[in-house]
Amino acid sequence: MPQQRRKVAFSGKKKKDQLLQKRNTKGPPKYLRSTQESYEDSDAPETTAPKKLMEQPFNRGGGGARNKNLNRYNLQFTQESKKELELMKEEGFKPLNVLTATEREIDAAYFEGFDFPVRPPWKLDSSKELLDRNENRYFKEYVDELFKKKQGAESKEISLFELNLETWRQLWRVLEFSDVLLIIVDVRFASLMFPPSLYDYIINTLKKHAIVVFNKVDLVAPEAVVAWRHYFNERYPELPVVLFASYSARSHKGTQRSRGRMSHQRSMEGVYNIYRECLRYVQNDVDLTAWEQKIREDMRAEEINMLENDNEAMKTQVEGELKISSSIDTTPHQHVKYYNGVLTIGCIGYPNVGKSSLINALKGRKVVSVSRTPGHTKHFQTIFLTQQVRLCDCPGLVFPSSTPKSLQVFLGSFPISQLQVPYRSLKLLAEHINLPQLFRLNLPEDYDEWSAVAISDAWAYKRGFLTAKAARPDRYRAANHLLRMCLAGQQQLVLQFYPPGYDKQRETWLHHPDLEAVIKYQQVDVEEPDSETNEDTSSICTDTAGSDEEDDEDSSNDETNADDDECVDQPLRSRNVFTLLEDD
Q: Which residues pair with 381 in a beta bridge?
């Protein structure tokens, strides 16, 4: 038997050299690889491949071919280059430029020159393969044309927008399927979440009715709500405006039951206003008596049944009430108005604007899961309110525009957990809101003036966010914590914009005839010790931190964990949420 060769020791240094050699041979990772061989030193524009967010492994839970479409409906955005990331880090050390009240006014300028992909022309006798091929070719040409505009010298910077064709197909299906469309927007950023091209397509091309729903009106001043409604009535005369506020079980002090009752009263008033607008459109074509009766019964109930165990609520649903399938039919649909005497209402809008919360309120109890994470709703969903009324919930879409990515973070369009460098967004927030004054921060010794990094260090020291070994301030954790609080509207941290001319006409809005009705809707029940207008005055570690939430996501998701830490500044609470937001 031949003698075996003696084994030679393989040192760690040799192993490191071997890995380095393999890495140099392969080149950069695929999701960062560009057409330029040296993208760090080149000034030429880069073309990067889209990056999937929240991607799940195919072998999760086994199943093989069963899970091959697991990531089919995930959000897709473009990846920043290494050069862009370095520039964003440098911006974090630049001093802040505080904005004036006029600079906080914003219109629909970010959507100028942009439309959105619509379904290409089709025929009833076309095969499914032909339709799929035509839609893929059209969408690829549309995206390529947008990126060509980005490379032009005089063009605007293109924002992050949805690059997943499957999600657009579900929007097309909802637009074709619905008789009346609810366009939900966050009133804090009303003009940034309402593409004029969508209004033109629904009203002029599809010839359908639409209703704009201002969600989260409890987070802004009532005069701002009045100003935004007046702006929409002038710019989009065909669209009625309805006020709504998402159900939030953690918004108030007091017992969980009292908070739920107050939120229920306000949400049901918004639901009834939606019913009245639909009745005005439908008139006698569809019998909506059962829907009205259902709303009145829900109004008499103490609160929406959302506080029960989520799994039990989903298990006890009536068969046929909620239809969600893993194989979503997104083929073209020939619309028939009020087919079989049923009114179909479609819900569309940006991610994280509260579409699922609105549907739960319309239904009167929890039928779809709710989350602050963008892209949580991934499937076309059909919910029957009555035998004559059904809802179609569409996943949230980010429409093409020139909105900066740093601003899209606050819109909820981009997950905060996916931010590689949070300083640009934090700088934008600090230029709108005086964070050192709001949180009583002290300037760290290493800085001469406030910047995004200085605010991150100060907040890290204040909250105890320190690294494990060196005990340095954890800047990224502190910055992400502030961004999540702003997204949730916690601890008086509310970023909002105003319509054009708001500052000059502020006295007009303060004495507008509609102001009293808006205040009444925000407060709902004046006899309660803590009204709904004080929702975001509660500290980030409220006494209900241990209670059940309406968010169904895992506790590891940092989109909703802005209030996990113990509070350090109880005196920061205020009865008036808007006192510290004015820098004039």
A: 393
